[in-house]
Specification:
The structure is a homodimer. Chain A is of the alpha/beta class. Chain A is built from 13 helices and twelve strands. Chain A binds a DNA duplex through helix 2 and helix 4.
Chain lengths: 343, 343
DNA sequence: TTGAAAGCGCTAACAC
DNA sequence: GTGTTAGCGCTTTCAA
């Protein structure tokens, strides 16, 4: 690995001049610049970021913490962030926590040692506490929200999405609609539940608490919850299910299959978050789709903007609250209930 | 951010001693050590990796380059690598290239600036060339292979997997078996194709070149290829399809649906690489499953071992050729052909 | 067992 | 326009 000193020597200039020629071309004479550039090229010179960052006290690096990289939604978030970071000349360090407080803490510590200039995080219930490990770090919360004030958040309109899904089911004539909701310590779950309930009540429908079951976001939780709901006596069994995330939706569909319930004839299902899986299963699922890639991009754009403000010494911009709309995609997993109850 | 100097001052020792107390506890008096540890804790001291790496000329960092983080197979590889790296005390930098030579080059340049000690890469056809950007970097090739000698490779037994899939179809009585293969500039595609052909010929079956169509690994390529194969006149149309990767398998299934072909009654399909999607679609797909997570872990383990050898000055270990078995998972997308041709 | 000093590669301040 | 010098935070000689 050749250093800038090597380049300088080869170009017959001092290291300082070589440095300038490479990073501030206009501070250097035309001919000198050319000689340095040549030398650099010839040696395949690549600046040592460790040294540069150490000196400049800025790494042009951001951290990204996601809770489940195997979930296509999160993979898409991460990709959006990384693409955007790249465009802005930043490098993104990606960490995965599996929703685990300890892993998150370790990720933050590792990150801290590398002096990222900002952090984009999909928060868990522990994040609020864990973030004390990285004081003064500009943060953008992505997809979910901790309640931290002074932090930019980039989320989706979960309430609106849930309302749309619920309205759709109501419009089809369902009166006993169940919901499988995530753990209520996560804001997306809370909001989706709220939207569901709101829409039921605004439409003059009854909200049946016993038809709302929480899960831990995993497929098996979705399956178990669905199994319980769908095993209720026919008179009270829900004829439609709104499921709060993509993983649990898989489980709910599997449960319906196990019980031999035909979708959508005997059971309508709406999932939250679209996926390849939702599109290609039989029948294709009606879902509330989220612009995952754009969420990632926006989170990064906002973070970078904020970093720019800080650097140029301007007052810290007030934290943004970005919210993107969802889209209800009608496919074939929803239909009017088999036997419409007498009105 | 407090520095080691702050810790030292607080503990009434020199920076050197503080450093030793933290990284070489046994070189320091018991009581001194305790004072330093206390001070560090009190200040929430976290060593600055940039400075440390610069000084030690070793970053305890590895690069990971994957071609499509949105592909669950690659996400799983990445996760395996990251988990293993973490266990070994290394930090993994993940990059995504979308199979694009330019992105790969940029990723390598960025990586180089951060001085990783090794690289795990899922190679593309350009990788061989691009790797010249990082001379002397220990490399492990993952999933695919460039033909670089002197490089450790961690792959799956693609030939064996393809043979098993083909044997299964032959065993069911299929005599016109088509294959949708990836671009033949990628070793996995070449090997899967070879296994397919081998098994046909060993079984005394005819290998029909016109039933083998290449694709670019994407869903739409799979769909188009399948559309062409399945639109052949009934007499020559394949009754079974072996598809070379997971994305293209999705496309093939969609094509069959578009043409109204029932799976498995009118068309058997075997995919390469399992996925959630393959498990939950109707019918669930018979696939050649790959131990993606383990591949990632092994790649990292081997890389780290190699790094250890280098550091301890031992002769560089000869490059390993790790190959993991695949597993044919029988589900419901394969069945005997509708009308068995007279033998 | 500890401290002083040097230096990893780079760039910014300050000469000239 | 260019060179000299200093120093980012850390670890590692080398002395004491």
């Amino acid at each position: 690995m050749s250093s800038i000193q090597d380049v300088a020597t080869l170009a017959n200039v001092s290291a300082a001049t070589a440095s300038r020629a490479l990073s501030r071309p206009d501070m250097v004479a035309q001919t000198t610049r050319e000689r340095v550039l040549n030398a650099a090229q010839q040696l395949g010179y690549q600046p040592n970021m460790l040294a540069r960052s150490l000196r400049q006290r800025e790494t042009r690096t951001i951290g990204v913490i996601v809770t489940d990289i195997l979930n296509p939604f999160h993979a898409m978030l991460a990709k959006g962030v990384q693409d955007a970071a790249d465009r802005h000349g930043y490098t993104a360090f990606l960490f995965n926590t599996d929703e685990d407080a300890g892993k998150e803490r370790r990720a933050l510590d590792t990150l801290r040692g590398h002096l990222p200039q900002g952090l984009i995080v999909v928060p868990t219930p522990h994040t609020h506490e864990n973030l004390k490990l990285v004081p003064n770090l500009p943060i953008v919360e992505l997809d979910r929200v901790t309640g931290n004030t002074g932090v930019t958040t980039v989320t989706v309109d979960n309430i609106g999405g849930a309302r749309a899904a619920t309205a759709h089911l109501i419009g089809l004539g369902h009166t006993r609609i169940g919901m499988i909701v995530g753990k209520l310590d996560i804001t997306t779950a809370v909001e989706r539940h709220a939207g569901f309930r709101q829409m039921l009540e605004e439409s003059g429908q009854t909200y049946f608490p016993e038809l709302v079951l929480p899960g831990q976001h995993r497929e098996k939780d979705g399956r178990e919850a669905a199994l319980r709901l769908l095993s209720l006596p026919p008179a009270v069994r829900p004829t439609a299910l709104f499921v709060g995330n993509n993983e649990m939706t898989v489980g709910a569909v599997l449960a319906a299959r196990e019980l031999g319930l035909k979708i959508p004839e005997e059971l309508s299902i709406v999932g939250f978050d679209d996926s390849r899986w939702a599109q290609t299963m039989t029948p294709p699922l009606t879902v509330v789709a989220q612009p995952a890639y754009d969420l990632g991009v926006l989170a990064c754009d906002h973070l970078v903007t904020q970093l720019g403000h800080m650097q140029s010494g301007r007052a810290r911009a007030s934290p943004a609250r970005v919210q993107l709309p969802t889209e209800l995609i009608l496919r074939q997993s929803t239909a009017p209930p088999a036997c419409v109850p007498t009105a």
